Amino acid sequence: MKLPVSTEWLLHCAATLAQLDPGASASAAQLATYFDVPAAYLAKQLQELVKAGVLVATTGPRGGFRLARPPSEITLLRIVEAVDGTSSPYECREIRQQGRGALRPEECRSICVLAEKMADAHDAWRRSLASVSLADIVATLPATAPARTRSRLRPA
User: Fold this and answer.
1) 62 near 100, Cβ under 8 Å?
2) How does DSSP assign the chain, residue by residue?
3) Which of 46, 57, 69, 96 has its CA 20 to 30 A from that of 29?
4) pLDDT confidence of 155, banded at 50, 70, 90?
5) Backbone dihedral angles phi then psi of residue 109, each to the nearest 5 degrees
6) Which residues contact 58 (CB under 8 A, 6 or more apart)?
7) What's the CA gap between 37 and 46, in Å, rounded?
8) Mean pLDDT in the chain?
């Protein structure tokens, strides 16, 4: 499975916001500069996390984005699904019933074993992402990382 590059950006932005003091925010421009990514496109993607209830956006001179809930309550799965959806990347088109090698309909009453294994893999991937919160990610960072992040996100 290949996810868009914006998924990486949003995961990193969310992990960065999780390092800020509670209630603190960072603008899309600050985050774009911090990661050297296009600000306009990042802002649009961050809005998807707002729609999903992962982030809150505020306007004004001190506005920006902040986490909508504690980092311990935001999983990687929630972020990924907010921007990439929930559908499986594998779609069985029942080609086992086509062409010269076509199976008879009575041989295809149960789910295709390949579709079953791909669904199992997708479920395992989702369970793995659901088991990791932003708090878990921050806990693995060097102890100096949150202070460094906060200092580098200060408005210029």
Assistant:
1) no
2) ----HHHHHHHHHHHHHTTSPTT--B-HHHHHHHHT--HHHHHHHHHHHHHTTSEEEE-STT-EEEESS-GGG-BHHHHHHHHH-SS-S-----GGGSSTTPPPGGGGSSPPHHHHHHHHHHHHHHHHHHT-BHHHHHHHS-TTHHHHHHHHTS--
3) 69
4) low
5) -75, -25
6) 25, 64, 65, 66
7) 13
8) 93
Cβ–Cβ < 8 Å for 149, 20: yes
Token digits for 150? 């906060």
Q: Which two tokens stand for residue 30?
A: 């600050």
84-100, pLDDT tens digit by residue? 888 888 898 998 999 99
Report the alpha-carbon distance of residue 116 to residue 132 in Å, rounded: 25
